Structure formats: structure tokens, C-alpha cells
């Protein structure tokens, strides 16, 4: 089995109101040095070793991402400390 | 400036209906070898170098995570290819 992470974020050119709201809350809590916050979706998939990178890209693009406003990153994390 | 990622996921013991729905969709699309999908939240923060790990942990725990049902991982990613 392999563990794969797909992180989906809103494209930088698109306004992220959720991120802005969190940034405002952080500043109201008195923290300094926080310049930007962007919120996205984090998917963790348990897949058989037979699953190819191409299949993962297809699923990330067609099912997990709205490619008009979002972009994604696919990472295999079986070795990484996660 | 440093880039920090906070990934928030539902605790393994908690049912993740969203993840189950995505898993069902993947299988209906005819893909094989997918055993589990869990969906969480992905935050990307741009922070000054003065921001400490302790502050990041505080914010992750108090603002970004519902610690009753969720757990989080904080990662500095300025070097990692992301």
C-alpha cells in the first residue's frame, strides 16, 4: 500500500476570503509577522502499489479540483514523516 | 519570509463521510486499487522569520483545528518542492 497526499489550493490570482478571515483572526489574537493565509483542501489516499501516477493525476484533476479556480499538488508520502 | 503548511485531518477513529463519498465516486469511475480517502483542510501561511514554531502550534491548535475531532501537522516548506 502507498499513501498519497493531494493538496488543492485556490489559484493565487483568485481572492481567498476564507484565508483573509483567518488572517484577520490571527492578527486580532495579537500575533505579529503573519502576512498571508490561504485555505485549501487536503486529501489523504491509501492506494495499492499498482495505482500509477497518471491515474492519481487524472483523479486529482477531474474529481478533487475545480481547475477553473484551483490548482493541485500530488505527493507520495510513504517515506516522508507525515 | 517563510512558508508554513498546516494540514488538518479528521482523527482516524472518526467517520469521514466526505472521504467515503469521494472513494465511492472513484470506484464508480472504474479505478481500482483505492482503499481509503480522507478529506481535510490545507492551510498555507506566509510568515516572517520571527514567527516561532510555538506560535505556529498555538494557532494551528486554537484557530485552525477542532481538536475534539481533528488533528494537525505543521510543516515549514521553504525548502521542500511544493
TrEMBL record, chains A, B:
<comment type="subunit">
    <text>Part of the FGAM synthase complex composed of 1 PurL, 1 PurQ and 2 PurS subunits.</text>
</comment>
<dbReference type="GO" id="GO:0006189">
    <property type="term" value="P:'de novo' IMP biosynthetic process"/>
</dbReference>
<dbReference type="GO" id="GO:0005524">
    <property type="term" value="F:ATP binding"/>
</dbReference>
<keyword id="KW-0067">ATP-binding</keyword>
<comment type="pathway">
    <text>Purine metabolism; IMP biosynthesis via de novo pathway; 5-amino-1-(5-phospho-D-ribosyl)imidazole from N(2)-formyl-N(1)-(5-phospho-D-ribosyl)glycinamide: step 1/2.</text>
</comment>
<keyword id="KW-0436">Ligase</keyword>
<dbReference type="InterPro" id="IPR036604">
    <property type="entry name" value="PurS-like_sf"/>
</dbReference>
<dbReference type="Pfam" id="PF02700">
    <property type="entry name" value="PurS"/>
</dbReference>
<keyword id="KW-0658">Purine biosynthesis</keyword>
<keyword id="KW-0547">Nucleotide-binding</keyword>
<dbReference type="GO" id="GO:0004642">
    <property type="term" value="F:phosphoribosylformylglycinamidine synthase activity"/>
</dbReference>
<comment type="function">
    <text>Part of the phosphoribosylformylglycinamidine synthase complex involved in the purines biosynthetic pathway. Catalyzes the ATP-dependent conversion of formylglycinamide ribonucleotide (FGAR) and glutamine to yield formylglycinamidine ribonucleotide (FGAM) and glutamate. The FGAM synthase complex is composed of three subunits. PurQ produces an ammonia molecule by converting glutamine to glutamate. PurL transfers the ammonia molecule to FGAR to form FGAM in an ATP-dependent manner.</text>
</comment>
<keyword id="KW-0963">Cytoplasm</keyword>
<dbReference type="GO" id="GO:0005737">
    <property type="term" value="C:cytoplasm"/>
</dbReference>
<dbReference type="InterPro" id="IPR003850">
    <property type="entry name" value="PurS"/>
</dbReference>
<comment type="similarity">
    <text>Belongs to the PurS family.</text>
</comment>
<protein>
    <recommendedName>
        <fullName>Phosphoribosylformylglycinamidine synthase subunit PurS</fullName>
        <ecNumber>6.3.5.3</ecNumber>
    </recommendedName>
</protein>
